[in-house]
Amino acid sequence: MTDPVLHASGLTKRFGGLTAVDGVDLTVRPDTIRAVIGPNGAGKTTLLDLITGFTRPDAGAVTFDGHDVLRLPPHRLPGLGLMRTFQSARLVPRLTARENVMLGAHHLTRARFLADGLRLPLARREQRALAERADAVLDHLGLRGYAEHKGSELPTGVARLLEVGRALAGAPKLLLLDEPAAGLDGAETAELAGVLRGVAAAGTAIVLIEHDVDLVMSISDEVLVLDAGAVVADGPPAEVRADPAVLAAYLGTVEQDTTP
Ligand SMILES: Nc1ncnc2c1ncn2[C@@H]1O[C@H](COP(=O)(O)OP(=O)(O)OP(=O)(O)O)[C@@H](O)[C@H]1O
Ligand SMILES: [Mg+2]
Q1: b/e for 153-188, b at 16 or more Cβ within 10 A?
Q2: Pair type for strands 205-209 and 174-178
Q3: Which one of 11, 12, 14, 18 would you pick to mutate in the ligand 1 pocket, going by the greatest count of ligand atoms within 8 A of its CB?
Q4: Based on C-alpha coordinates, what's the Rg of the chain?
């Protein structure tokens, strides 16, 4: 079996008296879609924050592609191939769709290390290359028509897809998505599912936090179920779906999603 691209073990995070994440193990293999589901407050976003170094764990370890994530500052991770999206949309409102996607690939450039004034030609060339890269992503997502639209003008569905596009522009080895389908209609969700399948097939592993159980079950290779910070089940979708502990913890309450 191939080595996992991500291996987290014993991850624990307490906020005061609350254990938001409680001894969680998560392994992600290359080319796979790994879902993390669970009711509101189960600890899904906190788990993502721990994996990406945004939050320091009280216990546990995270290895990504041979690197000890907990020893690296979070801004180093995109350069190593670890990219994430956030639960609430974080497009820059005053930048165009193209410029927003370009931000996701910024770590691939060299000019950012150098004083702009000294390396203007290089910076200009790299900006052009970034714009081309962003346009390729927009084409891939069928969003080229929005390239010149400001982030603040984009419909929700487009903005959510664009956030995935921004992360993809960075050529990640592992993409962590926090509820990418929130606010999408059926057609947009189906389109997103197609995009994610293509991304995984092209060699980028995905961790998908999602409330849409049908989406999760239809595209995931393995599903981890969290409840009150702890792992309730972990396995292939069909197995997880039939697990009585999962039904009790989660699937019965899925209609009550209150995510904003
Ligand atoms: N910075 C924080 N300080 C205190 N408590 C927090 C903090 N972040 C999260 N929590 C708490 O930790 C628990 C897990 O929250 P988390 O956001 O990880 O859940 P979630 O599974 O992502 O939920 P949702 O489906 O609503 O997004 C919740 O009880 C939440 O209130
Ligand atoms: Mg969350």
Answers
A1: ebeebbbbbbbbbbbbbbebbbbbbbbbbbbbeeeb
A2: parallel
A3: 18
A4: 19
**Global pTM value:** 0.89
Average pLDDT of the segment spanning 45-51: 96
Question: Taken in order 99, 101, 102, 107, is the CA torsion positive or negative?
Answer: positive
Q: Ligand 1: which atom is nearest the Cα of residue 259?
A: 26
* pLDDT tens-digit map of 164-181: 999 999 889 999 999 999
Structure confidence at residue 245 as a pLDDT band (50, 70, 90): confident
Give the span between the Cα atoms of 97 and 100, in whole angstroms. 5
Mean pLDDT value of segment 21-44: 95
Q: Which two tokens stand for residue 226?
A: 């969290």
